[in-house]
Amino acid sequence: MSRFQIAIDGPAGAGKSTVARLVAKQLGLTYVDTGAMYRGIAWRALKENISISHEDALSALAKETQFQLENEGIRINGQWLNEELRTPQVSQLASAIAKMAKVRQALVSKQQEIARYQNVVMDGRDIGTHVLPHANIKVFLTASIEKRAHRRFLELQAKGLSVNEKTLQEEIRKRDENDRKRKHSPLRKAEDAILIDTTEQSIPEVVEKILELCRTKV
Ligand code: C5P
């Protein structure tokens, strides 16, 4: 049976997960946060002391890990994880692990399997180009780096964490560069994706734009 699929890609901090979660809720679709899957492998690698140089061990970890994607977050091997996946250490390691072809293959096949049985809103870096090339709707969300860093800064501040905005900006810039320049499935806009720049747009405006796109497709 053919499924309804919305693919949302873009650089770090462009608002993908917030927008994707809201669109999924509105339409009653399953939200799949693929970044959380890469983060989950990074988190497990740190816990189990697996070095970044052991690509085979990391890809075995990716194959054997069970993910349950829910609108509010993710369970990894049954354990509910949220803030643990958002630390700078996990972010950096996830971005390094995401360069590895074998890890990507393992996670991409799990992502495709989820989309085989459910209607999904999936966000990441390679969803429209690689994971769901036939998605009904493809969106590429972007925003200026200053705006993306500022949003992340406000998010962390609201959680009571004190962070330097310039440091955040540098961290995001590095992750973007890693994602854009990597050999396997680099971050890029699919040719048939709609570009939405969120620098000057609110989350509800972007969500409405995507819902409007969906209305024209059904
Ligand atoms: O989206 P998020 O920032 O949580 O993703 C964490 C990292 O996982 C990204 O920096 C990126 O390197 C990687 N990633 C990826 N492909 C995806 C989703 C995330 O390479 N589909």
Report on the structure:
By secondary structure, the protein is an alpha/beta fold. It has a five-stranded parallel beta sheet, with helices on both faces. The mean pLDDT is 94. It has a single domain (5-217), classed as Rossmann fold (3-Layer(aba) Sandwich), CATH 3.40.50. The chain is built from nine helices and eight strands. Helix 1 (16-27) crosses helix 9, helix 3 packs parallel to helix 5 (101-117) and helix 7 (145-158) crosses helix 8. A hairpin with a 2-residue loop joins strand 4 and strand 5 (79-81). The two termini are 16 Å apart. Bound molecules: cytidine-5'-monophosphate. Cytidine-5'-monophosphate binds at residues 12, 34-35, 38-39, 94-95, 98, 124-126, 175, 179.
Total of DSSP H or I helical runs spanning 4+ residues: 9
Largest beta sheet: what is the strand line-up? 2-6-1-7-8
Q: Could you tell me the strand content as a percent range? A: 15-25%
Low-confidence stretches: none
Q: So, the CATH homologous superfamily?
A: P-loop containing nucleotide triphosphate hydrolases
Overall spatial form: globular
Helix content: 40-55%
Q: Using DSSP, what is the number of strands?
A: 8
Secondary structural class: alpha/beta
Q: Domain count, please report it.
A: 1
- Examine the secondary-structure arrangement and name the CATH architecture: 3-Layer(aba) Sandwich
The overall average pLDDT, rounded, is 94
Bound molecules: cytidine-5'-monophosphate
Radius of gyration: 16 Å
Sheet bearing the most strands, described?
5 strands, parallel
Order of helices and strands: EHEHHEEEHHEHEHHEH
